[in-house]
Structure formats: C-alpha cells, structure tokens
Amino acid sequence: MHPNPSNPHNKVKRTVPLMPQGSKLLLVATMIALYPTLSTVAYASTTDNLAISSSAKPDKIIKLKEIKKKYQRLLVGERNIASAMSVIGPTQIKHASSAESIYSLLKQTPSVNEYQQNVGPGTPVLTVRGVRMSQLAQTLDGIPMTDLLSGGQGAYLNNNVGTIISNGQISGIHVYPGVAPPDRGGFATVGGTVSYTTKTPPEKRYADIFTKIGSFSTDTYGFDASTGKIPDTDGLRIYTRLSQTQTDGYIQNTPARYTDFLFTAIKPYDYGLSKVTGTVIYNTAHGYLISAPNAVAQLDKYGIFYNYPLSESSTFQRNQYLTAILGDSTYINSHLVIGAKAFFIHKHSYLAGYLDPKYIAKDYPYQVNFNNPYSGYGALAPTTASPGVIPHTYDPVAVFGSYPAGEAAQINYGGSNTIGIAPKINIFLPHNDITIGGLVAQQTAGPGGGSYFYGSLDMPKIYGYNSYGDPSGKSQRTVYSGYVSDKINLINNKLHIEPGVTLTGVSTSNYVPANLYGSPPNAYTLSNYDKEILPYLGLSYDITHNVIAYASYGKGARFAPVADYLLGPSGSTTLAPGPETVNAYEAGLRYVGKHLYLNFDGFLQNMHGMFSFYTNYLTGLSKYANVGEEQMKGLEFAGKYEINPEWTVSGHVSYTNAQYMNSFSANVTPFEGQYGYVFAGDPLASVPNWLAGLRVGYHQHNFHAALIESYTGPQVTTYDLPPTESNPLLQDATTPNPGVKLAPYFLTNLQASYKVPIHKDHLSSVTVSLNIDNLLDNHYYLHYYQSYKEYAFAGVGNPYAEAYPGMPRFIELGLSGRFS
C-alpha cells in the first residue's frame, strides 16, 4: 500500500556484465527511464539483471546491487519525495473482487473517501482530503485521463458507468494528495493527482482463462495472454486481455454490463536501453443508475435496497471509451534520456431517462427521478422557428394529454475526442536530476450530439420537432503546458531540494447555435484564453539513514468548465470564470527501513476563487463567478510492517477538517448533483473527519490471504432551505446540515487464493480464489440528505430524507487456469 524502497526481498541473485568506462551511469539512467518510480521497482521485486548485448564488449563483472548503491541518489526519488504519497501495488489490484473499481481501491490510502452506486465502476463519488473528483488530476501512463472540457470523467451524469481503464488493465496506482511535484502533477488539479499505470507485457509466455461467479448474479469471465519475447524480433513482447462482467446490481433494478479490452506491446532497441511502447484500450459499459436517491421512508417500508421497477422509473447509460497511446523512450548518452507519448481518447455517452407520469404530480411526495424534462424545465410549449429560438413543434398536450405526461422521457447523447502529445526529457548531472516536460492536447465535443424529449423512450429524434438542444453546437479546448523540475542533492546527498514550475495556457471556444435568452438572437461563439504559473518547492533531509523530514509548497489550478462560459451584456463579450486555485502546504516525517515504513504528515490547503453559480429556472439564465473560499487541513499517518516473509501489516488513519471560508452559491455535494448556498464556517458535506484502514496479509508458497478493515467516520449531510425564503438565492437551496451526520461504518473484506500446480500437457496451474466484501454484512448508508420534491423547477411539499445504501455482503468464487 505504501512505498518501501528498502525491500528486503530485492536481493541480487546473478551478476551483470559491466559496460565500458562511464557506462554505469548509462545503466542507471536506463533503469530510471524504464522504471520511473522507486516504489514500482521495489514492489515488483525486480531481481533480474539488465540484459546487455555481447556487442557491448564488457570488460568485467559487477553486481547490480553495487550499481544501485553507487547511484542511489537516482533511485531514491520516491523515498525522498517532499510530498505525501501512497502506492497501491499489483498484489492489491490482482486480488480485488469484481465489486471493486479503480476508485474503490483508493480507499486503502489516507484521506480518501469513495463510494459507488453499483457493483463495479458504477457512478463513483470520490474525495481526497475533501477535494472532489472533478477537482483532481488523473493520469494514465502520464497522460491526462480526465475530461479537459469539464474536469473529472465529464459533465454531470455523463460517462458515469464504466471507465476508460479497469482494474484488470492496471498494474499500479500512485496517489499524490495536495499538489505533487510538477513531473507527477498531471493537468488541472486543486487537490491531488491519481496516477494509474497500465499493465506491460511480461517477459514470460502464457495464457490465462478465468471466470468468477458472485452475489447479485455477478459473472466475470475472460482471458489474458502474453507472447513473452518473440523470437527474432529483438525482444518484442505483446500482451492482451479481454474480460466481461455482468451484474443485476445490489440495488433493485440496476443491472449493468462492462466489457474491457487491452492490447499493449513493447519493443526494446539500442541493446535494450531504449524502447517503443504501444497501448490500445477499448472499454464499453451500459447499465441503470439511480439519479435521485430513494426516500428513507420507502427504504424503511420496502427494504434498504428497494428501487422502483424500470417500467416506472429508469435512468440508463451506455458509454464507450477508446484510448490509444504510442510512446518512446530513447537513451542519448549517459546524461540524457528523452521520450514522448502521443495519445488519442474517444468517449461517447448515451443517456435515456423516463418517469411514469403518475409520479410527476404535486401530490406525490417524493422525487423519483430527475431525468424527465418536466421536473427540470416545466411545461415546454411548442415554439416556432425564429431568431434566437431552438424550435420544437412537438406539442406534449396534443400527443399525450398533458405537459407532465408528454415530458416524461428524455434522451441525450454526445461524445468527445482528445488528441495530444506529452514530451519528456531527463537530464542526469552530478548533483542534479532535471526533468523537462510538457503537454499539448486538444479535446473537441460535438457537433453531432442531441437532446430530445417525449412522453416515452420510444421516441422520434427529430431536430426542430422534439429537440431541446442543437446538435450543431461544438466546444473545444486546447491545452499548452510545460514544466521544469529539478532534484538538487547537497550535503553529502542528505539534503534534497526540489524546485519546479509549471506554466499552463488554455484556449477555449464554445459555439452556441442560438441564443435562447437574450441578444444577439443569432448564433455566436464564446472564446477565452487563460494561463497560470504554478510554482512548487520541496525540501527533504535525511536525518539518519532511515529517517527523512520533508516539507513542500505547491500551487495548483483548475480551469472553468466550458459550460460556465456566458455571453456578456454587450452581446460580444465572453464572461468566463477564471481558474480556481489552491496553495498547498505539507510537512512530514518518514521512516524507511528494511522491514518497516512509516509516514506522518500534516497539510493545509487554502482554495481560492472556487466556482460559484446560480441558475434561475424561470428564465433559464445562469450566472458564474469565482467567489468561493475553502480550506482543508489535517493530519495523516500511514505505515507498513513486514513481520516476516509470510506476514505483512499495513494501515492508515487520517483526520481532515474541511470548511467553507465565506458564503456563496456552490455545488454542495461531491457528485455535484446538489447545489445551493453555503455559509462561512460550514463544514463540507460528505467529507468524513476521520478515515482509517488496516490490512493484514499472508503469503506462503501458493497461498495468499488478506483481511482488510476500513472505517469511515461521521459525515455532515445536507438539507434544503424552504421555498418560502425571502431571498431568491436561498429558496429551495441545498446547504450543509452540521446538525445531522451520516452514521459512521466499518467494513471488513476477506481475500484468499490458492494456486494448484498441474503441469499436465500445456496446463501449468489452476488458481482458486474467494472474495467476501462486507464480510459482516453491515447495513449502512453511503449518502443521506433532506430535500423537497422538485416539480416544474420548484420545491413543493414537505421536506423528507433520501439515501443511498451501501453494498451488503458480496461473495465471489473464482477459477483460472494458466497455459504455458
């Protein structure tokens, strides 16, 4: 779970030929290029030696351990990092159940709160130190996997089912809360970076066939295969994996299906000192989700996992994710390694929502589904084609008898393409290790999407008839970013100074086909250019060989979503909020021993210019501004102890105090599904003060087992101010409710697997696995709040409580066979 650079099992078993004079640094530089983080090297137990072609004419033999010791200043980059960092390794990923996702795995690290709505990657909600998912950077092999136009995976209720990469496609995760050093920070974050690493082709040839059967009719099956080193190709290796998971969901009427495909290849050259890599990922997902939690009164009456039948209420998503990455890392000389990654990401999202008209009524007390047009817009009367109007001649009353019945269903779909390149240069000097890198990327959404409404999901989709969006709309954002980071080693390699700076410019345009709410009446384009200079300074000092003190300061920025751009009152000016920013401070103490790793740190994150908006549903107009101030501060402790070669204990505990520093209109919940007004001094909702986890692992020969315990402390909930408030800003506005907190809960997970050697024909082994998530079958709520029913963009009735339940006990049996 956490980096331990002094892995006691990373022993040298063989020797490696020494290259001619001056080539030791070449070897180490290559090691750095191929294994960019020490924790990856340590946890992979890299005991193999570098293979050097006989044409190098070695003149003597030395041990790889001696090279590591002599050039330790290059290999301890993560050991001496001046920021908090957590690692999730391949073992934790491999043994996770099908119910988990790349986001739920993050709960095994400090200050991370996460929940999801379904088995597998279904509608994740994530915070790190109270900073929500849309404000975090996420990278995949160093490229941005977040949506450049909106942040996070995308806009609200887009791409919420499935992900661009799945558990079975990754080999490791690095979590950098706060502001990471520039070469690890990713694009656009005000509170943390989550870095995912895809699986690389193994050197051994094999093929695995696997299947799992679990609770809630959850079935997983697939295969993966490695070619090993293909003969007569100078080391070309290829790996591929295909898997499919289907589930009925632990909440009633939420079935889902996920299909994941990975193809990756690596081709070394220059005697193995350089390499070309290629990765293609194609994931698809479709499933039903709950757009509005159900009333607690109904859950008490019908059962905690109750949900309306799909014939009465449904929100369905079908998503596609295609990612292609082509990379190169080239050794130039003993001081210089250069590389670059070109990438392409395609996303497509389809959403269909329906609500039985009998629930679209003032006298029905609960909000069943937000994905019907009448709840959000009210009566959409027929319009005619005129300047400034998107016409729809569809008449809900004439076709279905009333506006609620004729606006019971909607279909939205759209997609985006992102293309870019991320170059990188590593310079190795006697006392410095300099990294220069950058990112040039462009994401385009539209034209070609669509938004339609009708009385049923079996609807015509005709622009000008039943459309309430213009498919010719188009938005685009181009990112130009560059950074320089240095690692200066002084005082006999005890003091490490890591200065760096990132300069990012963002050019954005949004073509609006028609201005619905003002002048000019014709189409227009909103455009804007923003830039930010983001400094970073980290210091670490080796007090002893094992004890390291560190401190850092970093500034981060997140650029406004394209949807926040508005036309100014003059009809020609773009009103665009500036970036929201954070000034993050950290200080900590780290112990790194052969069998013990400990880390203790404190943090302070002051967030400025947070995005604020207010929407008047009577006019449809929204106002956006940078007025919010937030502060996160807290303490974190994490550790890992290898008791002996069989037993390992790791754990973490963290305290976070997150609060609003002023009063403003805000997105109040992490999923951004509730917005309203917050007051100075209010705590952030859905951010537990206390989080903790403990993992006890056992491994001997072919048997693996782990017991994982997690604790999620009380969380502040939300409630809606009454519709009778005299201030229109506060009418029906959601706000934090410190007086009502979500109850804390413990979860216990059990993992076990046993590999049975076979060695018959081509079948070398069979592995049997068992996963039990929520072993004690605790019943608990993940999300809870009080609100009014929304009816035609207004709060009606009496306030009531709504909630999402957490997953009950999930049992899964697995079987896999390895052929070699």
UniProtKB/TrEMBL annotation:
It is a multi-pass membrane protein. It is found in: Cell outer membrane. Its main location: membrane. This is TonB-dependent receptor. SUPFAM superfamilies: Porins (SSF56935). Residues 417-775 form the TonB-dependent receptor-like beta-barrel domain. The keyword Signal applies. InterPro entries: Beta-barrel_TonB, Beta-barrel_TonB_sf, Plug_dom, Plug_dom_sf, TonB-dep_rcpt-like. One of its GO terms (molecular function) is siderophore uptake transmembrane transporter activity. Belongs to the TonB-dependent receptor family. The keyword Iron applies.
